[in-house]
Design a protein that fits this description.
membrane, DUF7475, transmembrane helix, two-stranded antiparallel ribbon, 2 strands, mainly alpha, 4 helices, elongated
Amino acid sequence: MAATTQTTQTTRTARGFGFETATLTPVHWTAVGLASITGIVHLYLWYNGGMDLFLLAGLGYFGAIGLLLLNVYRPALYLAGIPYTLAQIGGYVMEWQALGFGPAPEGTLGLTTKAVEIALIACLAYLFARWYSVRRAERALTA
């Protein structure tokens, strides 16, 4: 069994998987907050008689937060989170148009949530770009 070290912020196994927050930056925490907001909104919409897709969307955001905190390979989370969140935005636009309501209404909970999701996509893109540039620099030093 892998050795486990515990501190106030970190529980890590020898292979790098475990509850870990010491390496999270303010941008990570911003992304966690944004994902929490949109996750709560989706669960709220499902609870108030919405489609089961709202439940899946909400649980998906909270699942991603859990994986981030468990130190699962974070670049994969960043890359998966971008199209996942884009799909939520696309689904919102398509749902309103398919139901014959025309463009998505302004000033609604949905539109506010989409703004939060756009900010989340920006955070995820930044986090991946930062990870990639650091990784690239490390490779250049070892080459």
